[in-house]
Amino acid sequence: MAEVQNNPILKYFRASKLPHIWCPGCGHGILMGALVRAIDKVGLDQDRTVIVSGIGCSSRAPGYLNFDTLHTTHGRALAFATGIKLARPELKVIVLGGDGDIAAIGGNHLIHACRRNIDLLLICFNNSIYGMTSGQYSPMTPTGRLATTAPYGNIDRPFDLCQLAAAAGATYVGRATSYHVTLLIELIAKGLKHKGFAFIDALSQCPTYYGRRNKLGPSVKMMEWFKEVCIPVGAAKKMTPEQLRDKIVIGEMVNTPDVPEYTEEYEKVKARAKEMSAG
Amino acid sequence: MVKTGKGILMQGNEACAEGAIACGMRFFAGYPITPSTEIAELCALRLPQEGGVFIQMEDELSSMAAVVGASLAGAKAMTATSGPGFSLKQENIGFACMAEVPCVVVNVQRVGPSTGMPTSPAQGDVMQVRWGTHGDHPMIALCPWSVQETYNIVIRCFNIAETLRTPVILLMDEIVGHLREKVVLPDPSTLTIVSRRKPQKSSLPYLPYKPVYGDVPAIADYGDGFRFHVTGLSHDYTGFPTNDANVAAEEIKRLHRKVQAARNEITFVHKYRLEDAEIAVFAYGGVARSAMEAVMRAREQGIRAGLFRPITIWPFPEEEVRQSLGALKAVVVAELNLGQMRLEVERCLGKGIEVIGLNRVGGQIITPDDILETLRGVK
Lengths: 279, 379
Fold this sequence. Notes:
The structure holds two protein chains of two kinds. Helix content of chain A is about 40%, strand content about 20%. Chain A is of the alpha/beta class. Chain A has a single domain (about 25-280), classed as Thiamin diphosphate (ThDP)-binding fold, Pyr/PP domains (Rossmann fold, 3-Layer(aba) Sandwich). The termini of chain A are far apart. Chain B is an alpha/beta fold. β2 of chain A pairs parallel with β12 of chain B.
């Protein structure tokens, strides 16, 4: 017990709100743990950090975290976060959401936040399914998998969210999984320190609504699958597309620190406006 | 910078932006849409001069979301749109009601449904303003009839939003939005400007949603060290979700109570020659300009007519309507829709009084002649 009480990450949780609502075996608790460990590593001020989410299983995470927190409407977390960051650029703003939230209903906000290169960190808790509504296919459900709304197999093709974010202009992009926790903490920490839009695709397992229906579970087996199919980005560069089929590339994909950041650019707009109106 | 203290020519949309800036609006997020675009354009020009922020978002949904986010971070925030965009904003207008986030939403009405007639006036959104977002929520909407009044009223909208912690709709129409006329802007130092009340730091646990000022809570701004939670889910005083039926019901009722309790402070009506009137025109926004002219001409012709012009259209000024129009022979409700406010007038006045709808859709205005003819036709 003493070890638990002395755990340095406890202060980042609202202890009275635990235990969380996630199902046994869900990967989201691991991802949330990685986030607070990264926050601790970077040393963020808890009074100057806002955590924003949308709607879905993962979007319940801010409720457990001891910061200013905002649980918004489905898909819109990035847009609310953009308002917060622009109104008070001195605040650190972190956005969490699931793959339905970020890649489907919030897809437009994702690409435009990437394009602006506004200083936000977005972590997509990507478990390939709509968990909160109990198992409908998302834009991240692989083709052929089963879901309550794809009873004959999913015919949609999933995004590669990292490629999408990079193409849209995100200046820090990385991917890790609930199995590769050390990498995940490192990527989140670097994303937090990055000045600009940072995107982390954090793969998670949903044994209840995805694993069970597709006979992939239990949870440990799903995490072992992450271990088997993930290829570090460096190794992947030496592989052929054929060899990379059905593999998942993890690691840091994009890190371009010198791109102008949106709120800093807006400060220049203010200076120009004042100068021009005075002259 | 705009000149104060002497007459200048100004457009309604410009007056909306300048009034908002004068009372401290420092964040505007919007999306281009006719006939409201000039408000965004002027904010893009003027806000950075004043140290504020303008952003053109990727869509109407996100511009409303950004406004709510900015307000939670302490900024007086506004967005402006027209019917099609107003439909899209409903989602996060509801969030602002539920999470009690002050903000002002401008709707410069055009002809609908759907894309309708982008450059032509209408008043078809008056019921959407009231009921557009889902669930039982209160709504406050003010409706100016001139450029000068737009300037004054947008300031009142902000004062109400900040006092009651709720979104307020400034419901304009294309007539007023695109009208250019003379205005005299007051010296900013003479304006009454209200800002939200902030919580005091104390040793007790902070309860952001506990009502402190009547039924209005004192919610902190993000970054002020209170570490609190905001959600669109039904929540208790702590701000965290609840499934307790009694707590959820009480919260919804409190949202209504805080608006009802402020009724006298937020209800504005303009009455003209109703003291001895036999018939009255009920009109608002751009149409009320024609109504005023019609009433003056009717009086010249010996018809004892008057004008009742609600500036606050939601909450509907029930008492004022009953008091001013309850003993008349007939009321002509003139509006650029097929009779939306007429339903409210009929509901308030009951069966004893003839309520005549003068309605037009399709983009043509209602002229003074139209209204005069209707007044002359009252038996």
